[in-house]
Design goal:
single chain; about 270 residues; mainly alpha; 2 strands
């Protein structure tokens, strides 16, 4: 393994560039060519979210923090769709590659581990960003959607999709079967988002519950994207962005280390 690691680390720049493009293109085409599995489900789901929570429930709640309720929930739904799809893309492709053993073709290529992880993560992040934009466009059919802080919105969008794409790599290496992937997405990821201030304001919670809620990382992601859209946030967006960026770098480094060690890649 040590000689193989050395070889991977010393991969020629030209082969890495060409290989990165090939792997990245393959991963992008994988979700682009199957829109009914990648883009149609979030489209239908978010039409229902906006219809039920935004229109019907919004008529009773009216405003939160001076913002119409349907507009208040839009950033959270964007976050939910973006990170779920970024996570699903890498976790599924890594696990499916292990399951059908075609990931060995990537592992035996001259690509460095950094290039492999980078291609997987960036392709998945792109899918997450596309879904996030799609959800924002759906929201525009229900309410007037503006972007008050475009740079913050772009920064948070890129960071959170990269973070969950990187987490998906680790999830795909860890999972033993498809049920494990479902459990990660449905029973861990989505509950954290729903308790991350998507449908309510932290200020409406009792003080103790507010403090506990701040342990949920989704609070910072949802509020960061909300700051980009609306210019309002219940937590410091600069501190949130810095912490999330550092966490993203850490998780990507862990992914590279797992690939180098062969975790989940060899029987």
């Amino acid at each position: 393994m040590s000689s193989e690691t050395a070889d991977k680390s010393a991969s020629p720049a030209g082969s890495d560039t060409t290989g990165f493009y090939a792997l990245f293109r393959r991963e992008v085409l994988r979700f682009v060519r199957r829109p009914r599995n990648t883009f149609v489900p979030p489209f239908i789901t978010n039409v229902l979210y906006f219809s039920v929570f935004g229109v019907i429930l919004g008529e009773r709640i009216n405003e939160i923090a001076g913002v119409p309720y349907i507009l208040f929930i839009l950033p959270g739904l964007v976050v939910l769709g973006a990170i779920s799809n970024a996570f699903e893309n890498t976790s599924f492709t890594i696990f499916h590659g292990r399951w059908n053993r075609y990931i060995e073709e990537v592992l035996t290529s001259p690509l460095s581990y950094r290039t492999m992880v980078g291609a997987y993560v960036l392709a998945a992040a792109l899918r997450g960003l596309i879904v996030g934009v799609l959800i924002a466009l759906i929201g525009a059919f229900f309410t007037a959607v503006g972007v008050v802080r475009p740079l913050y919105l772009m920064a948070f969008g890129i960071v959170i999709t990269l973070l969950f794409a990187a987490l998906g790599v680790a999830g795909g290496l860890w999972a033993d079967d498809f049920d494990d992937l479902t459990m990660l997405n449905q029973f861990i990821l989505r509950p954290l988002v729903f308790f991350g201030g998507v449908f309510y304001s932290l200020n409406e919670l009792p003080a103790t519950v507010q403090q506990v809620s701040l342990l949920n990382p989704m609070i910072y992601m949802v509020n960061g994207v909300r700051f980009g859209f609306l210019g309002v946030s219940e937590v410091d967006p600069n501190a949130s962005l810095a912490v999330l960026s550092g966490l993203t770098v850490l998780v990507v480094a862990i992914d590279i280390s797992l690939f180098r060690r062969g975790y989940g890649l060899s029987e």
